[in-house]
């Protein structure tokens, strides 16, 4: 789920937290947790919308999750 969140945030679309929740299928709490951990930066833009950006920490975490996913997938097919 976190990987889906990081991928959606990486696109750089401006949206509300609820729209991000619906698009990715995660809770608003996960979005807030990612912001608190420093993986995602949220900048408020007009009318209750936010622009979400991946921080350098977020890019590293996304890369780690992708590597873990690939490792798990390859071991499954072996």
Determine the CATH superfamily: Winged helix-like DNA-binding domain superfamily/Winged helix DNA-binding domain
For the biggest β-sheet, the strand order reads 1-3-2
SSE topology string? HEHHEEH
CATH class: Mainly Alpha
Number of domains: 1
How far is the first residue's CA from the last residue's CA? 25 Å
* Sheet with the most strands, sense and barrel status: 3 strands, antiparallel
* Secondary structure: helix percent: 55-70%
Indicate the proportion of strand residues: 15-25%
Q: How do the strands and helices of this protein lay out in sequence?
A:
Layout: H1 2-10, E1 14-15, H2 17-24, H3 28-37, E2 40-45, E3 49-54, H4 56-77
Antiparallel strand pairs: 1-3, 2-3
Describe, in plain words, how this protein is organized in 3D:
With 78 residues, the protein is of the alpha+beta class. It has a single domain, classed as Winged helix-like DNA-binding domain superfamily/Winged helix DNA-binding domain (Arc Repressor Mutant, subunit A, Orthogonal Bundle), CATH 1.10.10. Helix content is 63%, strand content 18%. It is built from 4 helices and 3 strands; from the N terminus they run αβααββα. It has a 3-stranded antiparallel beta sheet.
